Amino acid sequence: MRSFVGRDILSLADFERGEYCHVFDVADRLKPHALERRNTDLLAHKTLLTAFYQPSTRTRLATEAAMHRLGGHVLGFSDAKMTRAGDFYQESIKDTMKMLEYYGDVIAMRHFQQGAPREAAAWASVPIINCGDGWGEHPTQVLTDLYTIHAELGTLDGLSILCVGDMRMRTMHSILYALSQFDSEAVVVSPPEMSLLDEFKAEIEQRNVRYREVEDVRDALADADVIYMEPVVQADYTKSREEASADKGVTPDRYKVTRQLLAEQAKSSAIILHSLPRMDELPPDVDATRHARYWNEAFNGVAMRMALLALVLGAVE
Ligand code: CP
Question: Residue 278: CB within 6 Å of ligand 1?
Fold first, then answer.
């Protein structure tokens, strides 16, 4: 297995099965600190820099919370418009990274431009963690999601994973890459204008990912072990920020998972994950069903980011 020390976390496309297992083991080891709300001094001499060029609630704050739990320091920006990268100068990724690498020991970056973290990694001498790049990928979220599935169901093999929503989403790309390492099938349902791109399908087919497309959640819900959701009422992830219009639209029934549908069709053991934020595709009354795991998923996001920070900064092997 490749070492994680000093490594950029940019994509799950080349993550190997043993590496997933190792990250999950480290997250298990560090999770009690988060559960007990107890900070350690594991990264007391390290600093995390968060460079967020797009809005975030969970990813930035979970990563910062993880660093605090490990006793490290945190600085950064959550609005690039208040930096020279976002104002009149539109400072380049190269010039920005050439500064930021002196201010922190690891950089957690979200950007509206697909590939921006990879470009940052080419210039920065410290590890870059991709916290979402345009429609590209969202590796820390999907590591969290897989960790949650493993914790809840005890395996990542032999599962039917129903992926519902906008298949342009970065989470959908990362999870489909990840499934190249596990003996599980993805069943994909999305509006036609939000379906998987042909070149992406060709790539995952070449990686032997098992997937099939259906038109309606009701065609596949009964067999699903995991219901993995994203909105179809969606922002444009290629923009740094987008105001919602008064008429955002509503989610057609074929992309919604309701309490009634779960009661009528879902396996008793099926779990629902949603990286959030949600729109109307997952009504709040589903929260009180036995299927909901998205709050566990959100908590696991702290443990997972603790594991990644500790690994790339060499505090754990
Ligand atoms: N899941 C996720 O990426 O949420 P945020 O946009 O709030 O970080």
Answer: no
